[in-house]
Every structure is written in structure tokens, then in C-alpha cells.
Amino acid sequence: MAHRRTAPYGSWRSPLRAAGAGVGIEQLALSGGDLYWTESRPAEDGRSVLVRRSPDGRVRDLSPPPFDVRSRVHEYGGGAFAAGEGAVVFSNLGDGRLYRLDGGVPRPITPPGEARYADLLLDEQRDRVLCVREEPSGGGGPRNELVAVPLEGDRRPEVLVSGPDFVASPRLSPDGSRLAWLSWDLPNMPWDGTWLWTADLDAAGRPAGARQVAGGPAESVFQPEWSPRGLLYFVSDRAGWWNLYRLSPYGRAEPVCPMKAEFGVPQWQLGLSTYGFLGENAILCAYTRRGVWRLAAVNVADRRISPVESPFTHISQVRAGEGEGAFVGAGFDGPPRVARLDHLGRPEEVYRPPGPEAEPGYLSVPEVVEAPSGDGARVHAFLYRPANAAFAGPPGERPPLMVQAHGGPAGAARPHLDPEVQYWTSRGFAVLDVNYGGSSGFGRAYRERLRGRWGVVDVEDCAAAARHVAAAGEADGDRLLIRGWSAGGYTALAALAFREEFAAGASYFGLSDLEAFARAAHKFESRYLEGLVGPYPERADLYRERSPLHNAHRILAPAILFQGLEDRVVPPEQSRLLYERLRERGVPAALVGFEGEGHGFRREQTLRRAREALLYFCSRVLRFPLPEPAGPVEIANLPEQGGSP
């Protein structure tokens, strides 16, 4: 083994650069032997490109610049394209219109205007595409409806379902005679309670005699699908876990393979999928247990589930049909890629996009950690230890710990090769990715721990997990940092305001003022905080009590705020006001804004700059030498310069 140099944790030189996350695979579709997917490309300013892989293995782009295959329905989009043997249709982010690909040339099939479209489904029998349309209603929030768009674009979209606050997941039965869909109403979020509906389609393709077959205000239904012989399947958490169910011919919901695992995910985006039918009696599916995703096959006849061996620890976009199965898989041996089942039913990689690969000697693979929290629950987390083949820490020194709070808050930490984690572990940081109370993947009761207690349970869980790791000797208890994205950014800021464990924090487009968000949030999240905090304005006192902005006088630790200047979910004003409040009070603080970025960073230069800026910030506040040059950041109230590379 080569000799390793001794250097302070955080100052290790690493071959893993600050470059972005590489190409991401967002949505996947399977049609007639062809695979279709969208790629987010940081090098193209985050543009999302529609790609096709033909059965002979050829891969080519379908959507030319400047088309960006995304949607802003619910602001988070999803389900931005549909592909079949006769047509390919996609949503273009720039103008919100739907386009049909004819001979490689996109042609609009919806009229210009302010409407947005998502959750696309081809109805080739009727030469139309079914989808969710969101458009201004003239008063209050936008109107969300299920519509049918003619593929020729010669007629205006026809409304099929309207009335509920939200609709999603249109699904046609194999013979095209029936339609299933989901709906929900405020203040529910789709992981709180949804309704599953079915209806017959008349001769004109309009639903008639709609009836609710599952769901309710306290039951979350996810991804309805029709089996090849016309039985309706769906995922429900009615028994405490998002499990697979089917509707019997008599209308009774029957569990397919009950287990303490989750086959569902929070519908932050539309067009999500965790299972599909390989044939009449076979389902390809993915489920998560203890935060790790697994691939499996279900025999519908005897309701037995069998594992499908794979190297993947995170699985999404599961698609299947006519004996074929495909999905997006991610592990620790490379970037997320497209995989499909071979003729023996084994997963094989068919496309790996350009992106960071596992670097021998610098790879940190996590350990599952559980820690006791204040309410008696067990907190789930992934611990990544420092890993560098060329460096070791000084004897007796323990590494700084970077605690990560995911977004949502009904999201989850994803265990796979993440350049955002490996960048830090290869420089001498330990990283703790926390699935705090409210996270998905651990059953409904775990999600419900956050009800009415956002800013309390999540903060306590992150602090408890950090203390647990430090007490075990895995990290320096005096050098605990916390960072988070979106809702996780709020958790990070709240931890700085209401706890004393953390020496510094970083927020990426995080909330600082809950009351301001409640007053101005977009429709999808307009009443989200009622479940997380309390009714507004009746409990406005709670909103102020838990807002980092209104408790800035309690923040003593240095903080750095990263913010997209075109963010439509968390306005840049939230970060600016908190920064000014901290600066005026003499707290070391930095604000880094990014032109052209919204809620979630996509551009190569943004991702690189954000990593370098945080490294510089950490080197200053934790006082270790910079391992390499990093563009300096202006940190108010911290005038003295730190180390050099």
C-alpha cells in the first residue's frame, strides 16, 4: 500500500474536481423495442434533451436546441413526454406548448398561451394525447384539468376531468375503453391523501360514470396501472406502507404482496413509476427498505415476490411491457444509467451517460446508521467516511462532519455515487445524509412524525444523528456543519437558530420566512405548511416562531446562502433578507446568487461554483488550508484571510 501523507481533514488534495454532477436521466419510456429518455445536461445550461435508443443500440437526440423537454406544472413538472409507435410528443419549457416530432422537426399541437402540460399519455386509438393541463383561471390559483389534445393539433384541447384542485396519472385500459386517474384537494399533498377514479369512455372518448375506487383524505394512492387483462393495480399506504394492491372484479382492493417496505414515492413530480407489467402474470418493480432500493419480480398468480439481483442502490422510472423491462439504476460504480432486462431476466446496462465515475481509492460507500431521537423514534441516516488513497488525518484528530438535510421535506436521502458527497469525503470530511422524521421510504407513521412539527422534529433528528456519530468517534463534535436544499435548507437554517450543535451551516434556496411562503406560495404548495406547521393565519405565531428570519438574533454560527435568482418556489428575497439580518448583527455570513437558475441548480458553472464557494467558506470558518485554489467568497464579518492551497 502506498504511503499516505498526513494532513488536516478538509485539506486533502483530491482528483475529484468541483465540476458538476454530469448528465442526469430524468424520465424513461419503453415502446416497441425502443427506449426513450430525457437527459439533463449541465454543459448545455441544464437543458433537458429527449433521446432514443433503437433496438440495434444506436442512441441519438430527438429534440434539437433550443427545445427544453420539461414542464412547470406544479412548478416541479414531470411526465414531459410520451412515446409510442405512431408519435412522440413532448412539452417545451420555453413556451409551455406541446410539440409532436415529425421527421425530427418539432411541430406545436397546442395553441400559444400560458397553459402548461405534463403527465403525458398517448391514446393512439383516438389519435390524441391525454395529459394534465395547468392554466390561469382568472382568479386565485391556476386551474388543473385532465385534457385530451389532438395529435394533429387541428382542434383545441378537450377537457375530460375538472373540478378537483389537482389531477394526475391518466391511465387507459388495454382495450382503451376505460380510464383511471388520481385527484386530490387542498390542503392535502399527494402523499397525504388522494382519490383513485375510474370511468368508462364513450364513443367520443369522454369519461362517463366516474366512480371512486380507492383513496381518501388519509390514504395516499400512487401510480394506477392496468394489467394486460384489464385489472386495475395501484400503490396505497392504507396499511401504513406504500404497497401494491389490485382491484378485484368485485371492486375490492386486495394486497398483492404486503410487506414493510415502500413501492411508492412522494409525487413531487408527475410521471413517476416504480412498477410495470412484463406480462399477464408478471410485474417488474422496485421498492425501498431502510432507505435502499431493490429490484424485484412479482408473480401475480401466487402473489410471490422474488428479488432480482442488481448492483443498484437507487432505482427509478421502472417501465415494462410485452416481456420487456427497463429502469434507471444508480449504484456506487458509476453515474445513474439506463438498464433493461436481458433474455434471462437479468438487468444489463444499455446506456451510461457521461459523468463522474467511481475513482479507485477515493470512493466512500455509506454505512446505514440509526440513532435515537428526542421523541423516542429511531432516526435513519447514511454515514460516508473520509476516503483518500493519498492522505490520512493527523493522529488523534477526527474529521469534520457535514450533515445533509434533503429537500421535501417529504423526500429521502439517496444512497448512490453522488459527486456532491464524494467531493467532500475525498477532501477529508465525513458526510451524514439524514432521513429525518417526515422522510419517505420508512412508512406513513415515519412521514407523519413531522405533522405540525416542521422545524422541530427534523432539526432534532439531524442534531441527534450528528451527536450519535460524534459520540461514536466518527467525527469531531466541535466541527459539525449542516446544509440542506429547499426544505432541507430551511432545516439547516432552523438548526442554526434553535440548536447549538452546529459550527456552521449552508442553505441552498432554503426557506427563511415561513409566513411569507404561506402567503405567496404557488398553488401546489399553497397550503402545504398547514400540515407541517399549522393553519394559517390562525397560527401565524407558530410560523414566526419557527422562521429563521424572525429568529436571526439566535443565529451565532457562520452561514452561507446559495440562491437561484429566478427561483419561483422560494423567492430570492428570502435569502437576501436573512443575509442582511445576519450581516447587520455581526454574524459571519455570505450570499451567493446565480443568474438564470431557479429552484434547483442545473448549470455546469453553477454546480462548480457552489462547491468551490462552500469549500472556501468551510476553510475559513473551520480554519484549515485550502486543498486547491477556489474562487473566494465575500464573507461579511470575517475579514481575516484563511489558509492557502
Automatic annotation (TrEMBL):
Gene3D superfamilies: alpha/beta hydrolase, TolB, C-terminal domain. Coiled coil: none annotated. InterPro entries: 6-blade_b-propeller_TolB-like, AB_hydrolase_fold, Peptidase_S9_cat, WD40, Xaa-Pro_dipeptidyl-ppase/CocE. One of its GO terms (biological process) is proteolysis. One of its GO terms (molecular function) is serine-type peptidase activity. It comes from the Bacteria. Residues 416-622 form the Peptidase S9 prolyl oligopeptidase catalytic domain. This is Peptidase S9, prolyl oligopeptidase active site region.
